[in-house]
Write a structure and sequence with these properties.
Blueprint: H1 7-11, H2 13-19, E1 25-26, H3 40-54, E2 59-66, E3 80-87, E4 92-99, E5 110-113, E6 117-118, H4 138-155, E7 161-166, E8 175-180, E9 187-192
Antiparallel strand pairs: 1-5, 2-3, 2-7, 3-4, 4-5, 4-6, 7-8, 8-9
Length: 202
């Protein structure tokens, strides 16, 4: 089952590039040693707290795993995560990063708050989601997705999984998109973030 990237992932790509066009401001834990890769939810909550400080009316739009130089991701866990939040009152969005290790000058260990950028509000392809709908963590989503992708993964053992969580009108709620390889030649599975089941577009 080969499927395209979640619409939210594609529609926010330009916004993410805009947000990263300047060196971000961040805070470091003071410990230069790398930690262990973490799940999406474990990284999300510290980022959510920082986003609330930025704007009390903020809403989460997207969570995405990243690679961190010098650190290796593990199944369902990543060395670095980003989360995008939007504020209707400010007409802005911000990308916040959580990293287990520092890689100067662009990546600091811990929470890293980017520069706000213009945001017109949710769209059908990139809806906000409720934190109460984020019941299933990335490690559990990985296990369910792997059961679907096992045959493909066995043929391509060098391909690692990446994770993106978002919400769009195509689904009944937020979904994890677990992708091995890339969107053109890889294998992806949508997992309902509330139930943990394989999600099908409407």
């Amino acid at each position: 089952m080969r499927i395209n990237f979640l619409g939210a992932v594609v529609s926010l790509a330009v916004l993410l590039l805009t947000a990263c066009s300047e060196p971000p401001k961040g805070e470091s834990s003071g410990d230069s040693g790398p930690g262990k890769p973490v799940t999406g939810k474990n990284a999300f909550w510290p980022m959510y707290k920082s986003a609330y400080t930025w704007a009390s009316d903020m809403v989460p739009i997207k969570i995405e795993s990243k690679d961190a130089p010098g650190s290796k991701n593990e199944p369902g866990n990543a060395a670095m995560w980003t989360a995008t939040f939007g504020s209707q009152r400010r007409h802005e969005a911000v990308v916040i990063t959580y990293s287990i290790a520092a890689h100067p000058p662009d990546i600091v260990k811990g929470i890293n708050v980017g520069h706000p950028f213009s945001w017109a509000g949710p769209t059908r392809e990139a809806l906000a989601f409720q934190t109460s709908d984020l019941s299933v963590d990335s490690d559990a989503a990985y296990k369910t997705a792997l059961a679907q992708a096992s045959a493909w993964v066995k043929k391509h053992p060098e391909k690692e999984a990446s994770f993106a969580l978002g919400n769009s009108s195509r689904f009944s709620g937020p979904v994890w998109y677990v992708l091995w390889g890339d969107s053109k030649t890889g294998y992806g599975v949508f997992i309902n973030a509330k139930t943990g089941e394989v999600a099908k577009p409407k």
